Amino acid sequence: MSSPDLLIVGAGLGGLALGQDTVRAGLNVQVLDKSRGVSGRAATRRVPLDDGREARLDHGARFFTARGARLRALAEGGVRDGWLRVWTRSVGEWRGGTVTVPPPAHPRYVPTAGMSALGRHLAHGLSVTTGAEVTSLERTGDGWRVHARDGSSWTAPRLVLNLPAPQLAPLLGDLVDDFPTLAEAAREVGRVRYEPYWAAGIVLERDLDAEWVGLRLHDHPMLEWAAREHTKREPGQPPALMLQATPAWSTANLERRPEDVLPELLDSTRKTLGDFTPLHAFAHRWRYSTPTVRASGPAHWDPALSVGWCGDWHTPDEHGPRMEAALLSGWALARWVLGEEG
Predict the structure, then answer these.
(1) Both 203 and 257 in a single domain?
(2) Residue 43 CB burial class (10 angstroms; 0-12, 13-18, ≥19)
(3) Looking at the 3D structure of the chain, how many domains does it have?
(4) pLDDT grade, residue 215 (50/70/90)?
(5) Could you tell me the CATH number of the domain that includes residue 227?
(6) Under a CB-based contact definition with an 8 Å cutoff, are residues 267 and 252 in contact?
(7) Residue 261 belongs to what domain range?
(8) Measured between alpha carbons, how far is 342 from 78 in angstroms, rounded to an integer?
(9) Confidence category of residue 342, pLDDT binned at 50, 70, 90
């Protein structure tokens, strides 16, 4: 197999979006990711049940919206093709024990197979190597070599890093003394900050008696979000709840074990939303969830060194750090990698 023209470290949505655009332009692209699959925080947990059914719970990103023309076209095309659907146009609001469901507004999209299906759609046709945890970067002549924990390495003339800023910063730290042009960019990466959150998924014996499909909780001591996950899927799926804790509670409990935080999350949910019988439950920690201090600009590209990075922790538009921001960042960086924009 020929050597790649571009290495992308991180198979989150921004990196995959960039990969698609650069492959279409004729580049040979290799994507690396430390996880077992693609999509990053657009993650779906599959839970097999004893009766042969399978529940799918989106324990990362909840849904996505499409403000820009390009993502709107992708979403509408996915709906026509049947792998995407409009989940809801109205998310409920919980305040002090009272739930209100506002009038319908803009669509919230979800893949019927789970949020990770969006990453698999973007990864179609890309060469992706999973289980590759990159630990260091090396400049070699006019190109780059990346080294993985298992001893593997890859080389290419161009390198893109699609990682959370706190994971990217240590990789850059070993380079700034030799390449001063990276120093200020690396300092900006180091200023990025994140909020964490704990998520909990519950497969239910019976569905809750509720009118809402998704619920934002305001001023709750523990919970920020709840979704009746089966309403995202095709009819007949096992009833399930997906919960997300507040950033404050998640930060205070960040280093606890999943099996220790799960009973507290379940107890708080029962007191807030009503009693239920779980068939299966799990907790998952996202250490780098929502960027609260972001880097300026849509992405970063150093044309002299042919290295750059992208992600929802950049500011490709005036809106917040949502899934669309990750895609916009990847699409913007692709134009720079290809020399279409300076």
Answers:
(1) yes
(2) buried
(3) 2
(4) very high
(5) 3.90.660.10
(6) no
(7) 46-114+193-292
(8) 32
(9) low
62: Cβ–Cβ under 8 A, 6 or more apart, which residues? Answer: 115, 214, 225, 227, 242, 244
Tokens describing residue 172:
């850059």
What's the pTM? Answer: 0.95
pLDDT of residue 204 exceeding 60: yes
320 and 187 part of one domain: yes
Q: Residue 203 phi/psi, 5° resolution?
A: -90, 130
**Which strands make up the sheet holding 29-32, listed edge to edge?**
127-129, 29-32, 6-9, 158-161, 307-309, 300-302
| Contact in structure between 293 and 318 (CB atoms under 8 Å) | no
Classify 233 as helix, strand or coil. Answer: coil
Tell me: do 288 and 302 sit in the same domain: no
Is residue 142 predicted with pLDDT exceeding 90?
no
Mean pLDDT of the chain: 96
| DSSP codes, 125-140 | T-EEE-S--EEEEEEE
Rounded average pLDDT over 282-300: 97
Confidence of residue 275 (pLDDT cuts 50, 70, 90): very high
The predicted pLDDT at position 67 comes to 94
* pLDDT at residue 28, as a whole number: 98
Whether 177 and 323 map to the same domain: the answer is yes
We report the CATH number of the domain holding residue 123 as: 3.50.50.60
The answer on 127 and 29 residing in a single domain is: yes
Q: Do 107 and 138 fall within a single domain?
A: no
Q: Is the pLDDT of residue 210 over 60?
A: yes
Three-state secondary structure call for residue 6: strand
| 168 lies in the same domain as 157 | yes
